[in-house]
Specification:
Order of helices and strands: HHHHH
Shape: elongated
Radius of gyration: 23 Å
Number of helices: 5
Largest sheet: none
Length: 96
């Protein structure tokens, strides 16, 4: 696998992981027991830490990319392994 392909896969995993991790560890003003600012949305986070999310997303993306590349190289799980639908008979087989 080429390095550019690995970087593209890493970027996709990183973006997906970052969006999945956004709601974890975030507390609202009501949950934190902090007074709200006038005009503040009910769901606005009090302790939003983007650096923590970026670090977590980076670590998880590295692990997922490593597993993906190793599976690509060694072929642990292939398309035939995850095919849950039985093969359909061809038209020639149906007419016999």
């Amino acid at each position: 696998m080429q390095i550019t392909s690995i970087l593209a896969v890493y970027f996709l995993f990183w973006v997906m992981t970052a969006f999945v991790m956004l709601p974890f560890g975030v507390r609202t003003a009501d949950e934190a027991g902090v007074e709200k600012v006038p005009g503040q949305a009910e769901s606005a986070p009090v302790n939003f830490r983007p650096a923590r999310i970026l670090v977590r997303a980076t670590i998880v993306a590295i692990v997922l990319t490593t597993l993906f590349v190793l599976n690509f190289e060694y072929g642990w799980i292939g398309v035939d392994d995850i095919n849950i639908f039985p093969e359909r008979p061809t038209i020639a087989e149906q007419s016999q």
